């Protein structure tokens, strides 16, 4: 571990469960890299991801944004092209856009597609799939409401998905955000994850919650604080 990391680690009580705003303030304080670090929340869920009915996946619009400029491309045709362009999509197209991607162009963060364009996008599965860029109706990136989809993504919509270890990782903003703004994003993210609880998941759902900066140590949050926050 670097001296910088150890110095940050020394500020964190590894045995303490912090209040939410206290943890977020500490995450900001331990973000000491020479770039704007992302403040992230990690949640360990009490689910069995080997069961199809216990998959937790979706998307949430963070009210204070992510602090990141997101490049969105859209596969659309007809009147939906103008909708996507007016909403701020960087590139809108069809077969020619698919060919550009097949030739190696990947300078974008999110792909949106109208349902009638999925036959074109489907061919890009081997390229987009491994990078987590394949449009999916479950997270609102396969839709005819392209204008709203692009606006939501630009405003701070992020996808979440429990991994094989039942963990979800979500950005809350940058280390230059105010604690109150990070808190608002945290609240929205946790409320969304709690609402996504599978009906078949038994016992405790939120097992462990921690926040951290990109290069900083994890700071554990008291689960009771989450219960008090959500109500």
TrEMBL record:
Protein L1 is also a translational repressor protein, it controls the translation of the L11 operon by binding to its mRNA. Binds directly to 23S rRNA. The L1 stalk is quite mobile in the ribosome, and is involved in E site tRNA release. This is Large ribosomal subunit protein uL1. Pfam families: Ribosomal_L1. The keyword tRNA-binding applies. InterPro entries: Ribosom_uL1_bac-type, Ribosomal_uL1, Ribosomal_uL1-like, Ribosomal_uL1/biogenesis, Ribosomal_uL1_3-a/b-sand, Ribosomal_uL1_CS. GO terms for biological process: regulation of translation; translation. One of its GO terms (cellular component) is large ribosomal subunit. GO terms for molecular function: rRNA binding; structural constituent of ribosome; tRNA binding.
